[in-house]
């Protein structure tokens, strides 16, 4: 897990309030960009779980019914991050995005 000082050096974020705004910028970038990404469903669900953990905290919803397959998978991934601090979830989300952006196979066009 990152300390705040290590995070600042690595990602150039000067305070925790900026961390939240940085996460929101990244999410908005995903929504407004044309991306040539072939993400596995596991990676998409990891992004979902980390986003929910970083914005809402631990999963507080009951497990969806058996036949609600998409809902169950989302719930399982969000719940897999139970106990992870919101800021740590933001760090992991941002790190995953940076890894995607640095991969030459991905074509990021904003």
Q: Spell the H/E element sequence.
A: HHEHHHE
Are there runs of 5+ residues with pLDDT below 50, and where? 1-5
Average pLDDT score: 78
Could you describe the largest sheet, including whether it forms a barrel?
2 strands, antiparallel
**Approximate helicity band:** 55-70%
Beta strand %: 5-15%
SSE-based structural type: mainly alpha
Which labels suit this protein?
mainly alpha; globular; disordered N terminus
Topology readout:
Layout: H1 4-11, H2 16-32, E1 34-36, H3 41-56, H4 69-80, H5 86-102, E2 107-109
Antiparallel strand pairs: 1-2
Helix pairs in contact: 2-5, 3-4, 3-5
Structure description:
This protein is mostly helical and 110 residues long. Helix content is 64%, strand content 5%. The protein contains five helices and two strands, in the order H-H-E-H-H-H-E. The protein has helices at 4-11, 16-32, 41-56, 69-80, 86-102, and strands at residues 34-36, 107-109. Strands 1-2 form a two-stranded antiparallel sheet. Residues 1-5 have low confidence and may be disordered.
Q: Could you provide a short overview of the structure?
A:
The chain is globular, with a radius of gyration of 15 Å. The protein has 110 residues and is mainly α.
